[in-house]
Amino acid sequence: MKTVLIKNAQIVNEGMIQQKDVLIVGEYIDRIADHIDDVPESTSIIDAKGKYLLPGVIDDQVHFREPGLTHKGDISSESRAAVAGGITSFIEMPNTNPQTVTQKLLKEKFEMADGRAFANFSFMFGGTNDNLEELIQTDPKNVAAIKLFLGSSTGNMLVDDEEVLEKIFSSTNMVIAVHCEDENTIKKNFEADLETYGEDIPIARHPIIRSEEACYLSSSKAIALARRTGARLHVFHLSTAKETNLFRNDIPLEEKMITAEVCIHHLTFDDKDYASKGTFIKWNPAVKTEKDREGLWKALLDDRIDVIATDHAPHTLKEKNQVYTKAPSGGPLVQHALPAMLEFYKEGRISLEKIVEKMCHNPAILFKVYNRGYIREGYFADLVLVDLACEQEVTKESLLYKCGWSPFEGKFFHNKITHTFVNGHLVFDGKNVLPEPKGKRLKFDR
């Protein structure tokens, strides 16, 4: 059985940083100790002196576009980019084509990923106004969560029937993950701007159309419903400071029934960036004001926000280079999410321990991911080794996304991922993603 010894690493794990050796045997972390020397001659040895070893990142919200939208990205291409960015597990959304709203289509999607995903994977089952019978058949041990679009849906995935919502919230013990924006508010704002500007609405109007009011109205309504029904609710991609006041930080994550996520772009950009970035930072919910960005940071650091994710959602350059009304929302982020957060660490905004908590430990706790998200003996060896004493520029040539662009192009990061391990296998060596996919289906301890 293959063995790998990582020596002299600064391990960032469970609120501490300690220099240790880590022995990987097969797919698992076998030993963690101050010094490990009694290993087989065939052991591969990595001297990690001066580098930091993190658990692999678990990204709880990505759109990898397969099936049906593979001109933008696919499970293989986007998971390759993910492992180059230190993401070793991902949870993918159901708004593909066809949408993952039946058990048959869910099964087919798992089959698509098997043997092709470079990172570990799970998928969410999508709720609609008319698929409750399919939804309640979802196996909580094998599927990450139920996903509901309470705004900004594609196809028929907008769940706007209040009676149906009540039934869904009352019928499952699984995590219900929601996109919260009030469609009526957005429609009213959009129609007013369409009348004023025509098709070419200025991109700076995006956070006004998809306003604070639209977000807060929807998220507060979802939270009220969760409290009334006792549902386990997870609110995706908060974008406003006002919404953060809906969440609590006075109990451990394990005891929370209502949790929240923030995404890299909402921590990075604000509405002043539309002037230079244009539709390349057009997301739903919208990037909003500096005050909102700072409010999100505050809630992240005081634990009202539990998880950092990407909402990776690639579109082609041709699609993004259109007028506001035609340019789709979303952008690619998995390759640069961890480097972006490590840059914030170097700027003094967040500790390494807190990054690991929000990107590795907490997703594992929240979704009850089996034996991942930590550096522990007996756990799967999903590991990321990073060098914080180097510089790299995000260039078009360095991108692994099928869509071929990034909102971070031209940015210098003062850190570098040098090794990524998935299930004990080295899958990224700092320059290249190794050709054989090693991702496995995630299991959940429920």
UniProtKB/TrEMBL annotation:
Entry-linked InterPro entries: Amidohydro-rel, DHOase/Allantoinase_Hydrolase, Dihydroorotase_CS, Metal-dep_hydrolase_composite, Metal_Hydrolase
Keywords: Hydrolase, Metal-binding
Molecular function terms from GO: dihydroorotase activity
Name of the featured protein: Dihydroorotase
Occurrences of domain Amidohydrolase-related (ranges): 52-427
Naturally occurring in which organism (per UniProt): Namhaeicola litoreus
Source species taxonomy: Bacteria, Pseudomonadati, Bacteroidota, Flavobacteriia, Flavobacteriales
Cofactor(s) the protein needs: Zn(2+)
Entry-linked CDD domains: DHOase_IIb
Keyword NADP: no
EC number: 3.5.2.3
Keyword match Metal-binding: yes
Gene3D superfamilies: Metal-dependent hydrolases (3.20.20.140), Urease, subunit C, domain 1 (2.30.40.10)
Family classification: Belongs to the metallo-dependent hydrolases superfamily. DHOase family. Class I DHOase subfamily.
Source organism, top-level taxon: Bacteria
Function: Catalyzes the reversible cyclization of carbamoyl aspartate to dihydroorotate.
